Amino acid sequence: MFQYTCLNPIANVGLDLLSDDYKKVEDLKDAQAVLVRSASMHDLDLPDSLEAVARAGAGVNNIPLDKCADKGIVVFNTPGANANGVKEMVLAGLLLASRDIVGGIEWIKESKDEADIAKLAEKQKKNYAGCEISGKKLGVIGLGAIGVLVANAATHLGMEVYGYDPYISVNAAWNLSRNVKHISNVEEIYKECDYITVHVPLLDSTKGMIDKNAIDMMKDGVVILNFARDLLVDEAAVVAALADKKVKRYVTDFPNPTTAGKEGVILTPHLGASTEESEDNCAMMAVREIRDYLENGNIVHSVNYPDCSMGGCDKAGRVAVLHKNSKGMIAQYTSVLGDADINIEDMMNKSKGDYAYTLLDVDTPVTKEVAAKLEAIEGVLKVRVVK
Ligand SMILES: NC(=O)c1ccc[n+]([C@@H]2O[C@H](COP(=O)([O-])OP(=O)(O)OC[C@H]3O[C@@H](n4cnc5c(N)ncnc54)[C@H](O)[C@@H]3O)[C@@H](O)[C@H]2O)c1
Ligand SMILES: O=C(O)[C@H](O)COP(=O)(O)O
């Protein structure tokens, strides 16, 4: 029996994929697995029982990744599962920023009791007029799951699209339209584009990347869209640039006191992934990842451990070792297993940064005593007897 808890509501279509071997618990301290969306886990005490965290979504800045890795807790996310939902919000953002659609709708609400509203509207409409996006230049910073979809869709809307991502994956590059201009210096996007949209993860290296210096390089009347994370942008600098009419609109999905209610800011309440389809996709992927890890020891789509998958286990036993990425670890495992007269029939070892993962299929199930010997090796963070 595996026990799990949900720190946010998770779509039922995902939870329904859990078998009778899974029991939901309310208290984190009783859980082996956590399903979470945006709830912050930074201040939580993580129990020793916890084996895995699955973020039903993309951004993992709400999870202490290294702290989890040090405790042998594998953190997963669901790459791409909500990308279409966000793409559609970005397209809406481009249009909302181009004509004052929101202001026009508000005016209608305020004027609803005017008998000659139709005539008044014809006079008023010039106040809400704007431009078309067709023919304008869009800069997409970050060409991952979302950025690629946004870039490709914008080409179909007649935009000239510039794309920047120095770390683009092979898969994303394959999916990117050949009509997207590849930019190798982000400053070209700042200087050339009418609309700039950011789709990078929040990391130490990306925090505040759209700062005053970047804004100063931008065209007068630029529109900045941020459906990634608020801390990527120096929003105080954006609000000042809006007041100076340097920036025409700032469209963002992350309300906070700096931007809420400010002139020129179009704010949505973190709606990017809030569609039935995205919520279902994320929940299903997250649950499948958790199940494959707890039941088979396989890691797929982890953000703090390497992916490492050997499929189902058809040998007598399987043991998983979560460890530091140090020299000489495997020799020590083979020695412990050899001393216990256990033969390794298959194995896989992968590393990611400071952490590594070794899966071993063996001809005799590993006992608690042998597992304890493996766990006592310096640099080993956790040992799981999977079968
Ligand atoms: N508003 C929402 O509801 C919502 C929904 C999903 C994701 N997001 C946010 O969007 C982010 C991106 O999501 P995704 O699914 O596209 O992730 P992803 O991992 O598929 O793509 C991120 C891309 O950013 C690139 N990148 C990293 N550093 C960069 C840099 N300095 N300059 C340019 N590119 C850089 C990476 O190479 C990668 O291709 C998430 O991390 C999350 O914060 C928000
Ligand atoms: O990073 C993400 O996936 C998004 O910000 C969505 O967050 P949510 O699952 O809390 O809507």
TrEMBL record:
<keyword id="KW-0560">Oxidoreductase</keyword>
<dbReference type="Pfam" id="PF00389">
    <property type="entry name" value="2-Hacid_dh"/>
</dbReference>
<dbReference type="InterPro" id="IPR006139">
    <property type="entry name" value="D-isomer_2_OHA_DH_cat_dom"/>
</dbReference>
<comment type="similarity">
    <text>Belongs to the D-isomer specific 2-hydroxyacid dehydrogenase family.</text>
</comment>
<comment type="function">
    <text>Catalyzes the reversible oxidation of 3-phospho-D-glycerate to 3-phosphonooxypyruvate, the first step of the phosphorylated L-serine biosynthesis pathway. Also catalyzes the reversible oxidation of 2-hydroxyglutarate to 2-oxoglutarate.</text>
</comment>
<dbReference type="InterPro" id="IPR045865">
    <property type="entry name" value="ACT-like_dom_sf"/>
</dbReference>
<dbReference type="InterPro" id="IPR006140">
    <property type="entry name" value="D-isomer_DH_NAD-bd"/>
</dbReference>
<comment type="pathway">
    <text>Amino-acid biosynthesis; L-serine biosynthesis; L-serine from 3-phospho-D-glycerate: step 1/3.</text>
</comment>
<keyword id="KW-0520">NAD</keyword>
<dbReference type="Pfam" id="PF02826">
    <property type="entry name" value="2-Hacid_dh_C"/>
</dbReference>
<dbReference type="GO" id="GO:0051287">
    <property type="term" value="F:NAD binding"/>
</dbReference>
<dbReference type="InterPro" id="IPR002912">
    <property type="entry name" value="ACT_dom"/>
</dbReference>
<dbReference type="GO" id="GO:0004617">
    <property type="term" value="F:phosphoglycerate dehydrogenase activity"/>
</dbReference>
<dbReference type="InterPro" id="IPR036291">
    <property type="entry name" value="NAD(P)-bd_dom_sf"/>
</dbReference>
<dbReference type="InterPro" id="IPR029752">
    <property type="entry name" value="D-isomer_DH_CS1"/>
</dbReference>
<protein>
    <recommendedName>
        <fullName>D-3-phosphoglycerate dehydrogenase</fullName>
        <ecNumber>1.1.1.399</ecNumber>
        <ecNumber>1.1.1.95</ecNumber>
    </recommendedName>
</protein>
<feature type="domain" description="ACT">
    <location>
        <begin position="318"/>
        <end position="387"/>
    </location>
</feature>
